[in-house]
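Re: the request from the purification team.
They wanted to know what the chain is likely to look like in 3D before they choose a buffer screen. I agreed to run a prediction and write the result into the notebook, where they can find it.
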Amino acid sequence: MGCMAQLRKFAGVVTGLALLLMIGCGGGSSGSSVPDYSQTANWLVLSSSAIKNVDVFYIYPTAYKKATPSDPVFCAIDNPTMVQGAQRAYQQQATAFAPYANIFAPYYRQVDATYQLALPFDQQDENIRKVPGPDVIAAFEYYLQHYNNGRPFILVGHSQGAAVLKYLLADYMTLHPDVYQRMIAAYVIGQSITPQYLAQNSHLRFATGSSDTGVIVSWNTEAPTTTIPNPVTQPGGIAINPITWTLGENTAAASQNLGSLQLDATGFPVLDQYGEILRVTGLADARVDQAKGVVICSTVNPAVYNAYGIYHNFDIPFYFFNLRQNAADRIAHYFSANSGS
């Protein structure tokens, strides 16, 4: 499903909430046992020859959509629609980190977004704890035991992937402080990080600048005006400016943006004549709206990117090359701070 179609679906989640609540939970959870992550088929990406000194563990956003109301809420790990969507999301998002890190990305059983976003946030969290969260924690543990070899790592997730990372950070990292010490940053994008979440998980900190480490980095992107509520944001959410990496409300001009992605009709990044990802400059500005807990982008045309003004699927593409540079900055700071240890 393309970017525009996904964003229209999010709008339908809000405007058709009563109808969506009638859909119910379909045919169950596609089995209760977590996948076997010793099987390479259960991995979207495995860096078999890890040549860099940092890893990225990437969790893709929602790629599963129920074809009929009787389909299960939680898809199978080899669901063809999800697999195709995960591959597209990887190209839009995780490739930002490819110059600096070995990338590891498991497939996991997802919950249908239309059903999920119609629920209260506490019930959404419960769904994550049922299937997607345990799958990803199993994959993360397998990765640590068999692929990581003690390297520092970055966590990256968007949308449902970010919701899963919130679960991993809150539950797994609490019990494994030795692993948490090697976390350079967690990019939890397309979900809200609230003060309540941080208070409940006192071991976690939100980023305050461009190079602090062991921190959460998060934002959700909107137009200056939106015609519907944003179904992925929560009251009180904290956002960082993905151009300046500050928490204040000063606008970072589009001219300061290091570059955005242009996506083709299928949702994959457009490549230049050399086969490299095309860098689009001067497209997207950024301003933190602290009251809404989001990043406001005022320089793109909502009619082109989404008439409703919720730029959820462009959280990363708008700021792709800023994210790439920021990862490099945080990696450098991590090794500088830990050079004597």
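For the purification team: The two ends are 47 Å apart (CA to CA).
Please add any questions underneath this entry.
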